[in-house]
């Protein structure tokens, strides 16, 4: 578990808004200095609320979008300086499964065409070999090969997500970004797809970067967790560390906000985060969580806390919570 | 008019069907439940189970003539909903029953100021004047915890965050002090910390104002946090109903048990690498299996399950489960309700 598959150093993605005609415009700091290492065959979950930059981080890690700054190292190779040709060769190894199984499959293509496209793009082999590979992919995700001739609308949401997974796995990837890949599914189907992802991980030695807002899924599925808030990773640790003893106040509030499926545990005493997420266009000074943090002191209003690492744990907070 | 009881809403044998070119589809069948005064009653199920359709049927919003709603009883605090005309139903909506939807952005008009929309039920049902409406909306904004409420009155929907928009929708739902508020996935589009705020607000409002609430959700966590009574729906039927403690302590329908097992829990350590799941998928309502609708996915299925649709078995204390496991097999109490 110790070999690093992909490692990000000080990644940033800034968007410039407005401006033009001499106006200054505004800068949205969607990803604002993220460093992290993803280990071989682990499931690393990236959690955070909408607008925190988790999807953008996933995309720039694969260079589906260009980062504004920072470095991404994939198995010893620096991705940010790679030209298009070099990047294309690596694409096989770096794949994505998207959230919406209804929007991510072309409705006018048969399943076979959908699965064959990435194979052809990377020169997989003869037509017969491609055909056989498509059938094998379908079976690998638990669908019958007869479905090769079907269209996406003939499938349920769970089945479509299986097809999306099959497509991502077509060229034997190594590192797969799952962006809210089970969020649109009903719970009974969600569990089926998570089990499939897990089986495929074991079988194909995959490393997952699992982006989600759903903390319950994270606890049951991830090995390590990174918590993102307004473009920053505020805490990283093993799943058990994060859930049993969160150190960043934001992590604690996030976990506490999840409704619990046990009426005996209902409590109105549980701490609830007040207020609203600040706008990423108008970032507060100091720690960006201080406007909502009940533990904030003077230093939090002026000084942005640097991430501190101890063992498996990284926290960016002036006053981390004690266990 | 019937006499007033402890129940704000009482529904018996509600059935909704749609007639189309390809035959007709029964989307709801044998729906019977009560909503006690000041209680929060959950309708929980996966997509297509009929939970939103139940709400639309109650509100008289099922499109006619394709959609047909029948019931032996649909009583809202003494008013027989089955006998109301379209006009009578229009009077009722927003005044006696109101609804909060999942997506506050699509249920608000983007080009009208928020206060005019939130106050509209007052103009429609009570003929109030603008100045009075504005004052009442301000009171409601304060009640639902909208910060800086005065400044928010003249905002347009896009100027509010998702959480504030949902607070405004709740304010609109409660502005005529309805007997029943139906909340259809009110927090599904919101972030988890905002969701916690909105759920807490709804509980507080129930305690302060005594509103009775039907909570429609796919999230058993929300059910456990919020509800007094629960109805679990599957393929257009209520398959289990119970008070919330009985449901979570003694789930009695195999579907409920499967659902409870397959929800990932944020509070529990991971025990195994695989999660329990329910095999198969929700049936197409136009092609329902014979007998019990859950049978094709059920690990406990018996021969009788293929032959006859079970009625709701009475397990005592208002707990019912639509399952042959709890019914005598030779006598088949079809249509029996708990």
Automatic annotation (TrEMBL), chain A:
**Domain named ABC transporter: residues:** 6-255
One GO biological process term is: peptide transport
State if Transport is listed as a keyword: yes
Q: How does it sit in the membrane?
A: Peripheral membrane protein
Pfam families according to UniProt: ABC_tran (PF00005), oligo_HPY (PF08352)
By its UniProt entry, which Gene3D superfamilies does this protein fall under? P-loop containing nucleotide triphosphate hydrolases
Single GO molecular function? ATP binding
Localization per Swiss-Prot or TrEMBL? Cell inner membrane
Family annotation (InterPro entries): AAA+_ATPase, ABC_transp_ATP-bind, ABC_transporter-like_ATP-bd, ABC_transporter-like_CS, Oligopep_ABC_C, P-loop_NTPase
Q: Which UniProt keywords apply?
A: ATP-binding, Nucleotide-binding, Transport
* Classification via SUPFAM superfamilies: P-loop containing nucleoside triphosphate hydrolases
Q: Name one GO cellular component term.
A: plasma membrane
Its family remark reads: Belongs to the ABC transporter superfamily.
This protein's name: Peptide ABC transporter ATP-binding protein
TrEMBL record, chain B:
Has the keyword Cell membrane been applied to this entry?
A: yes
GO cellular component terms listed in the entry, alphabetical order: plasma membrane
Per the record, the similarity remark reads: Belongs to the ABC transporter superfamily.
| PANTHER family reported for this sequence | DIPEPTIDE TRANSPORT ATP-BINDING PROTEIN DPPD, OLIGOPEPTIDE TRANSPORT ATP-BINDING PROTEIN APPD
Q: What is the lineage of its organism?
A: Bacteria, Pseudomonadati, Pseudomonadota, Alphaproteobacteria, Rhodobacterales
GO biological process terms, semicolon-separated: peptide transport; transmembrane transport
ABC transporter domain residues: 9-260
Q: One MF term from GO for this chain?
A: ATP hydrolysis activity
* Keyword terms: ATP-binding, Cell membrane, Membrane, Nucleotide-binding, Transport
Task: Kindly list the places in or outside the cell where this protein is found, as annotated in its UniProt entry.
Answer: Cell inner membrane
Q: How does it sit in the membrane?
A: Peripheral membrane protein
Q: Which SUPFAM superfamilies does this UniProt record tie to the protein? A: P-loop containing nucleoside triphosphate hydrolases
What name goes with this protein?
Answer: ABC transporter ATP-binding protein
Q: Which organism is it from?
A: Pseudodonghicola xiamenensis
């Amino acid at each position: 578990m110790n070999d690093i598959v992909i490692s990000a150093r000080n990644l940033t993605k800034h968007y410039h808004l407005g401006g033009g005609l001499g106006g200054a415009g505004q800068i949205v700091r969607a990803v604002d200095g993220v460093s992290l290492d993803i280990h071989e065959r682990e499931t690393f979950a990236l959690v955070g609320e909408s607008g925190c930059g988790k999807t953008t981080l996933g995309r720039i890690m694969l260079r589906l979008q260009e980062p504004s700054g920072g470095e991404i190292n994939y198995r010893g190779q620096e991705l940010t300086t790679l030209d298009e040709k070099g990047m294309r060769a690596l694409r096989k190894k770096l794949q994505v499964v998207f959230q919406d199984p209804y929007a991510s499959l072309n409705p006018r293509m048969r399943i076979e065409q959908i699965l064959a496209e990435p194979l052809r793009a990377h020169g997989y082999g003869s037509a017969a070999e491609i055909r056989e590979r498509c059938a094998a992919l379908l079976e690998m995700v638990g669908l019958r090969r007869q479905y090769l001739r079907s269209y996406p609308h003939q499938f349920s949401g769970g089945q479509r997500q299986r097809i999306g997974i099959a497509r991502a796995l077509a060229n034997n990837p190594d590192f797969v970004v799952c962006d809210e890949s089970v969020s649109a599914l009903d719970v009974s189907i969600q569990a089926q797809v998570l089990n499939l992802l897990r089986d495929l991980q074991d079988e194909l030695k995959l490393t997952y970067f699992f982006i989600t807002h759903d903390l319950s899924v994270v606890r049951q599925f991830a090995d390590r967790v990174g918590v993102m808030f307004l473009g920053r990773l505020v805490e990283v640790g093993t799943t058990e560390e994060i859930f049993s003893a969160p150190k960043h106040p934001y992590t604690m509030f996030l976990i506490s906000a999840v409704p619990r499926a046990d009426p005996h545990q209902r409590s109105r005493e549980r701490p609830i985060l007040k207020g609203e997420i600040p706008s990423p266009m108008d970032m507060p000074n100091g720690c960006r969580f201080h406007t909502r943090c009940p533990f904030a002191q003077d230093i939090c209003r002026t000084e942005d806390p640097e991430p501190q690492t101890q063992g498996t744990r990284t926290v960016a907070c002036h006053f981390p919570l004690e266990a | 008019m019937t006499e007033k009881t402890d129940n704000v809403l009482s529904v018996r044998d509600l059935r909704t069907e749609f007639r189309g070119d390809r035959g007709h589809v029964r989307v709801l069948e044998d729906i019977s439940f009560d909503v006690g005064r000041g209680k929060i009653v959950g309708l929980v199920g996966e997509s297509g189970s009929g939970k939103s359709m139940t709400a639309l049927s109650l509100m008289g919003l099922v499109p006619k003539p394709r959609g047909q709603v029948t019931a032996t009883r649909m009583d809202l605090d003494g008013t027989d909903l089955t006998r109301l005309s379209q006009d009578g139903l229009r009077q009722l909506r927003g005044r006696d029953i109101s609804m909060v939807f999942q997506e506050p952005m699509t249920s608000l008009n983007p080009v009208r100021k928020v206060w005019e929309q939130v106050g509209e039920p007052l103009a429609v049902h009570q003929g109030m004047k603008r100045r009075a409406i504005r004052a009442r909306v301000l009171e409601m904004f304060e009640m639902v915890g909208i910060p800086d409420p005065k400044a928010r009155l003249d905002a347009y929907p896009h100027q509010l965050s998702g959480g504030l928009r949902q607070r405004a929708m709740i304010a609109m739902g409660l502005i005529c002090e309805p007997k029943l508020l139906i909340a259809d996935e009110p927090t599904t589009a919101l972030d988890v910390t905002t969701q916690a705020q909105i759920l807490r607000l709804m509980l507080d409002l129930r305690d302060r104002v005594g509103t009775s609430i039907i909570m429609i959700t796919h999230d058993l966590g929300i059910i456990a946090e919020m509800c007094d009574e629960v109805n679990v729906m599957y393929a257009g039927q209520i398959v289990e109903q119970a008070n919330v403690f009985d449901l979570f302590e003694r789930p009695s329908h195999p579907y409920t048990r499967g659902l409870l097992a397959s929800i990932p829990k944020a509070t529990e350590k991971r025990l195994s690498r695989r999660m329990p799941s329910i095999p198969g998928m929700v049936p197409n309502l136009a092609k329902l299996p014979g007998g019990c609708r859950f049978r094709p996915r059920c690990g406990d299925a018996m021969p009788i399950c293929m032959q006859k649709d079970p009625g709701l078995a009475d397990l005592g204390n208002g707990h019912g489960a639509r399952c042959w496991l709890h019914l005598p097999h030779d006598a088949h109490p079809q249509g029996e309700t708990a």
